Each structure stands twice: as C-alpha cells, then as structure tokens.
Amino acid sequence: MSAKLRRQSIIKRILNERIISNQEQLLKLLHSEGLKVTQATLSRDFADLGVIRTFMDVGVRYILSSDDFGKHISKLIGLEILSVSNNENMILIRTLAGRAQGVAHYIDRLNREEILGTIGGDDTVLIIPDKVKSIQAILDMIDEIISNKPD
C-alpha cells in the first residue's frame, strides 16, 4: 500500500471513529500514529476523500461525504442559504456568516457540467456557469437544495 493510500485509510478510520472538529486535532492524531503530515497535504487528502465540514448536534465536525451523509448535508446546506440572485452571467448566493465556503464546496462536489466553478467568501458564493443558457438549470438545482430543508 502506498504512503498516500495508507494515510488516507487512517484519516477515514479516524473520521469514522471520532468527532474531529478542526484540522489541527486530526493532524495531532495522525502524528500520534507516526504520520508526519502537513496541513496542505491534509487539505488535499480531504479533497480526494470528499471530506466536508458540517454542523451537527455535537457541533462542528468533519465527515466523509457519502450518499447517506450527502442527503443529510444537502438538508443542512439548504438551511445555510439565505438568498439567491443572478444577472445575465453569474449567480450569487448569500449564506449564513462563515458558511459560504462550505456551500461552495458542496456545490463543487456535485460535479455539474453546467458549473465551471464557485468562489466562496464568508457569506457569499459566486457561481460561474459554463454558459448563459445554463443559469436557469443551476437556479433550479439550488432551489431543489433549498426545498430539501428539514421540517
């Protein structure tokens, strides 16, 4: 097993067994397992593994994005979106303070061909469509996310 696969396997195990609320906490646990990992490497591993930061009953937590978690996350993302607007070229989403990057990451992970990319600030997400004609399909997708809010 390559060093990367071994490291990512350990990351998955830790995230499934423990509540990890920040990257520093995970870095310490990895170091205690004999792995010297930088924050940049950990961020790349998170992207590879689909690790996302979410708010749960126990507070902030890093989780592996899976179908079950994806449905749960979709509901949470819908709660974090406050408003959606657009012009002829782009879509702007206003979120709760501090949640724009999480919303942008979630939208990126949907891998929709209509979306070239997102930019997440503190409370604003900019979505860049692949073409103007795709704006309505993206707005419909966002509306679907918003409508999946828990009752």
Notes on the protein architecture:
- The protein is α+β, with helices and mostly antiparallel strands and 151 residues long.
- The protein has two domains: 3-64, Arc Repressor Mutant, subunit A, CATH 1.10.10.10; 68-147, Gyrase A, domain 2 (2-Layer Sandwich), CATH 3.30.1360.40.
- The protein has helices at residues 3-17, 23-32, 39-49, 67-80, 100-109, 135-147; strands at 51-56, 59-64, 81-86, 91-95, 115-120, 124-129.
- A four-stranded antiparallel beta sheet has the order 3-4-6-5. Strands 1-2 form a two-stranded antiparallel ribbon.
- The longest helix is centred in the first third of the chain and has 15 residues, at 3-17.
- The mean pLDDT is 86.
End-to-end Cα distance: 45 Å
Number of helices: 6
Residues in helix, %: 40-55%
What assembly state would you assign to the polypeptide chains in this entry? single chain
Query: Which spans of ≥5 residues are poorly predicted at pLDDT below 50?
Result: none
**How would you spell out the order of helices and strands?**
HHHEEHEEHEEH
Query: Number of folding domains?
Result: 2
Number of strands: 6
- CATH structural fold name of the largest domain: Gyrase A, domain 2
